[in-house]
Each structure stands twice: as C-alpha cells, then as structure tokens.
Amino acid sequence: MRIHHFLYALIGLILCSLPLQGQSRQNISLKFMGLSFHPLSGRPNAKLMPNRLDPEAYFVVDLGALLSYEYFIIPEILSVKGIQGLYADCTAQLAGVTSIGLRARIFRIGRHRLYGGIGPTWIYRRNWYRLPGYVDTKYFEGSPTDKWQRKFLWYGGELEYKYAISPKLDIATTFVPGYPDLMAFAVGLSYNL
Asked: What are the pLDDT digits (tens) for 65-81?
C-alpha cells in the first residue's frame, strides 16, 4: 500500500513540474549596476572610494553588469537561478560576484511580480591592500600579497521586482540586502525563453 502512495506522489510531482501552456520555464537577464549603499558608512576606507557621493561613502557609484539564468522548477513559483557579475567596486577596481540559489515568488498582481532568493554567493575583488591607506575590516579574506580578496556567503540573498512589458520581456530590478556592510541595486531586462 505504501508503494502506491509513493508512486502517486511521484507522478503528481512530475505532472506539477511539467511546463504549463504559455508559461516559460527559463529566462535570462542582463542588469546594470550603478549604486551601492553602506548603511554604516564606508569608513574606515571612505577616502579610497573615488566615486563616493558623500564624504563618508554612504552612497557610492559602482558600475557593472549582472548576467543571470533562471530555471523554474515550478513555473512562476520556484526556481534555481545562477548569477555572474563583473563591476568596478567602491574603489573603482575590478570585482565580481557568482551566485546560485533557490528563488520563490512572493507575490504576483497583474504585471507586477516580486521574488526572493537565497543561496551560496562568492564575492571577489582586486586586493585593496595595494591601495595606500587601506584599513583591513576583516570582512574579506586574503593576505597583502594575494592578487584577490574574497568572501563566501552561504546565505547571499536578493529581492527582484519584475514588471511584464510583454509576454516575453520584463523590466527587472534587483536589490541585494547585504546589511550591515553593503546594499546594492541593479536594473535591466529579463527575457523569457
């Protein structure tokens, strides 16, 4: 009797995960970064940030791009998303982010959707030890002789708002709530394959 329950559950899971008519199971997005926010300021390294918008580097311009691929396990509800980003960090040096994680829809109202995601995230940047006056805050790993500094987070997250401008194309904005160190914003397009 138990084997029948298992088989019914397995068949139900497979049927629920099949694509529904008119619903895309995957998308790609390209977003542009441009503004980051340090909730507790950029101290003690604010003076090293040439694109800060205020003396304490609460707001810093950091230009870059995020490319992502998303596959929906349950259409429009639950997905796996991979993100690769390259950008000029707060000191205008090369930096990057790589992430993969699960995302779930929080709400959908008409053309508006909000998703939340969480998963392992790798952040890396050119070594700030090379910059005169750098004060190590112990957030990133790496020695003064390393070419790169890095940080691994098991719990990196994002909130993504999408507005459907057509069945295939969305305007998408991303907010990365990295409190208390850094909050980042990105905006771009998402294309449903």
From this structure: 999 999 999 999 999 99
Q: How many domains does the chain have?
A: 1
Are the C-beta atoms of 41 and 15 separated by less than 8 Å?
Answer: no
Beta bridge partner(s), residue 177: 183
Q: How far apart are CA 175 and CA 85, in angstroms?
A: 14
pTM of the model: 0.84
Q: Is 9's pLDDT higher than 60?
A: no
* Predicted local confidence at residue 160, as pLDDT: 98
Let me know if 13 is exposed, middle or buried by CB neighbors in 10 A (0-12, 13-18, 19+).
exposed
Residue 11 lies in a domain: no
Quickly tell me which residue has 């997905």 as its tokens: 79
Asked whether 172 and 159 are in contact (CB, 8 A), the reply is no
Q: What tokens does 97 get? A: 């982010």
pLDDT of residue 44: 96
- Provide the pLDDT confidence category of residue 23 given band limits of 50, 70 and 90: low
In a domain, 38, yes or no: yes
pLDDT tier for residue 181 given thresholds of 50, 70 and 90: confident
φ, ψ of residue 39 to 5 degrees: the values are: -55, -30
In a domain, 2, yes or no: no
Query: Which residues constitute the domain of residue 48?
Result: 22-192
In a domain, 139, yes or no: yes
The answer to whether the CB of 64 falls within 8 A of the CB of 44 is: no
